[in-house]
Design goal:
Largest sheet of chain B: 2 strands, antiparallel
Radius of gyration of chain B: 26 Å
Number of helices of chain B: 13
CATH superfamily of the domain at 83-256 in chain B: MetI-like
Distance between the termini of chain B: 54 Å
Mean pLDDT of chain B: 84
CATH architecture of the domain at 83-256 in chain B: Orthogonal Bundle
Order of helices and strands of chain B: HHEEHHHHHHHHHHH
Shape of chain B: globular
Structural class of chain B: mainly alpha
Strand content of chain B: under 5%
Radius of gyration of chain A: 24 Å
Structural class of chain A: mainly alpha
Low-confidence stretches of chain B: none
Low-confidence stretches of chain A: 1-9
Shape of chain A: globular
CATH topology of the largest domain in chain A: MetI-like fold
Distance between the termini of chain A: 37 Å
Mean pLDDT of chain A: 83
CATH class of the largest domain in chain A: Mainly Alpha
Largest interface: A-B, 93 and 95 residues
Helix content of chain B: over 70%
CATH architecture of the largest domain in chain A: Orthogonal Bundle
Oligomer: heterodimer
Order of helices and strands of chain A: HHHHHHHHHHHHHH
Number of strands of chain A: 0
Strand order of the largest sheet of chain B: 1-2
CATH class of the domain at 83-256 in chain B: Mainly Alpha
CATH superfamily of the largest domain in chain A: MetI-like
Chain lengths: 281, 305
């Protein structure tokens, strides 16, 4: 249509190529650079001027990443905390979202706003009282210390995503099930939840990534070496005077791969969930 | 008294009335919010009136507004507040411009959507602390890629590389660039969704009327995108005011405390020095600052909506 009028340097194909290259390079280059660094030998790393591509790739840094620090333990901690808090977030927000979307509530909008507004509250300012609470509950350096706050952190986005999914399911299906003898909870369990499964899944990925990435609470509440999550553990690879960059790079790659695979597999859902939560918030 | 038998607890649980069901379903969320948001807010405010140090043997001592008076005279507080506002003022518009650029590029009709989409998702999914570590390595004096590129372009020499993270202003620049890189892709995702909702017919009509691309951008794209832009800006501002991870991993607030943010000062005061009373006062002040700035936005949204 408009193609014929476009000036020469905006030739669609060339333009498309440069546009894609710019976006892809912007997104991938930092991670690629870390990947290159992680494959370099100590000698190559000390060379000046620096090399870009690793000339003699080595996996030695990966071995050391696992032996210098309990990286496997950090991975396990991160996975446990992220999975547990995702599960709890989903249950709690699915319950709240169903009530908001389906029940005859007087202050429906107010309740949803209250839940979303809680995410607007700067978490840092609550660090002190949360720290005190966890301390008096004896939860410091346990999974619970992180799972509970992460659930709250994820409540708004999960609730928003699930409310809109529940609203998209025709009420008649539920009514039909109830006429057939299902109780309300039975209808929720057998009819609504299975239909909302894509929404539950989307909310779950977002919750998982949020929990996997969190740093400040993990740093403050679970400081003992055996309870650190990945972001905290990797930051502490650095010694007093040295920064073992190739080893840190290797550990970073190990930590990035699980989430990168997750979002690569479910891109469309993640984007959908993010923009849904974002545009409604 | 009525003769009708009231449903037993068991029956009510199996098939609860609408009202009972609402209470049951909302209770867990409400309890969690009480434990992690509402109770801490109360606790925070009450702590801020006490001299309360977990390191000493003395119990809490009520000091009234003394902590607040101390905050107002605290050079470290004003330094951290200034840095936080500076970071917000630079990185929020910065991320908006870069994010809008990325969104416009990503909105082009590619045959394969996934490489571009994944390139926007990856920085979003990366923990902030990892972005900080990666960019600290980028800006490394001797082995960083930034100085290497500068040397290749003849902007600096190998003998006198730029000391990015060891100079107050350069460190702040490096931190802001890192934050912009990390946050612009989330902006781009939100704006891209907004771009895709603009009806093509608007552009076709403008084309017929003889509007240039530039005019189309300012007359159609930007106004139609405004709701997404405002949402993205609000989200970004709220998170920018809480900046912690990236300066913490890149500079630990240094050199000196030239890149220390409010969040870092609160963390240091309470978690490292265990001074809960003063830390709570700092947190209340930080909350007031973020409330002022976000309410400005909310008011702006109210006007445009």
């Amino acid at each position: 249509m408009t193609r014929a009028t476009e000036p020469g340097f905006l030739q669609p194909r060339a333009l498309l190529f440069f546009a894609a290259a710019a976006v892809v390079l912007n997104g991938f280059f930092p991670v690629l650079w870390i990947l290159f660094t992680s494959l370099k030998t100590e000698a190559e790393l000390a060379a000046k001027p620096i090399t870009w591509w690793p000339h003699v790739p080595t996996l030695q840094n990966y071995v050391q990443a696992f032996t210098d620090q309990p990286l496997l333990r950090y991975l396990g901690n991160s996975a446990a905390v992220a999975l547990l808090s995702t599960a709890v977030s989903l249950v709690v927000s699915a319950m709240a979202a169903y009530a908001i979307a389906r029940l005859n509530l007087k202050h429906r909008q107010l309740i949803l706003t209250a839940i979303v507004a809680s995410s607007m509250f700067p978490l840092v300012t609550l660090l002190v009282p949360i720290f005190e609470t966890m301390r008096s509950l004896g939860w410091l350096n346990t999974y619970a210390a992180l799972v509970v706050p992460y659930t709250v952190l994820n409540l708004p986005i999960c609730t928003l995503v699930l409310v809109s999914f529940f609203q998209s399911i025709p009420k008649d299906l539920e009514n039909a099930a109830m006429i057939d003898g299902c109780t309300r909870l039975g209808a929720l369990w057998r009819v609504v939840l299975p239909l909302a499964a894509p929404g539950v899944f989307t909310a779950g990925i977002l919750a998982f990534v949020n929990a996997w990435d969190e740093f400040l609470l993990a740093l403050s509440l679970n400081s003992s070496a055996s309870m650190r999550t990945l972001p905290v553990g990797i930051t502490l690879y650095q010694g007093e005077f040295s920064f073992p960059w190739p080893i840190i790079s290797a550990a970073l790659i190990v930590a990035i791969v699980p989430v990168a695979v997750l979002i690569a597999l479910f891109q469309e859902r993640v984007v959908g969930g993010l923009t849904q939560g974002g545009l409604k918030g | 008294m009525t003769d009708q038998p009231r449903p037993t607890w068991g029956e009510q649980l199996r098939d609860p009335s609408e009202k009972t069901l609402a209470v049951l379903l909302l209770a867990p969320a409400a309890l969690l919010l009480l434990l992690i948001v509402v109770y801490p807010i109360g606790r925070l405010i009450s702590n801020s009136f006490f001299d309360l140090r977990l390191s000493g043997r003395k119990g809490p001592r009520f000091v009234g507004l003394e902590n607040y008076a101390l905050v107002l005279q605290d050079i470290d507080f004003w330094n951290a507040a200034g840095n936080t506002v500076l970071i917000t003022v630079i990185t929020v518009p910065g991320a908006l411009v870069v994010g809008l650029g990325l969104a416009l590029l990503a909105n082009l009709p590619f045959k394969r959507q996934w490489p571009v989409r994944l390139a926007l998702l990856l920085p979003w999914a990366l923990p902030l602390s990892f972005a900080g570590l990666i960019f600290a390595w980028f800006f490394h004096t001797d082995y960083g890629v930034v100085n290497d590129v500068a040397r290749r372009l003849g902007l600096s020499s190998a003998e006198q590389p730029t000391l990015w993270l060891l100079h107050p202003w350069l460190a702040m620049t490096a931190i802001c660039l890192t934050i912009i890189w990390k946050t612009s892709s989330f902006m781009a995702l939100i704006l891209l969704a907004g771009l895709q909702m603009i009806p093509k017919s608007l552009y076709e009509a403008a084309e017929v009327d003889g509007a240039s691309r530039w005019q189309q951008f300012w007359q159609i794209t930007i106004p139609m995108l405004m709701p997404s832009i405002i949402v993205a800006l609000i989200f970004r501002t709220i998170t920018a005011l809480q900046t912690f991870d990236i300066p913490f991993t890149m500079t630990r607030g240094g050199p000196g405390n030239s890149t220390e943010t409010l969040a870092m000062l609160i963390h240091k005061t309470t978690i490292d020095y265990l001074d809960v009373g003063y830390g709570s006062t700092l947190a209340v002040c930080m909350f007031i600052i973020s409330l002022c700035i976000t309410s400005l936005y909310i008011r702006h949204v109210g006007k445009t909506a």
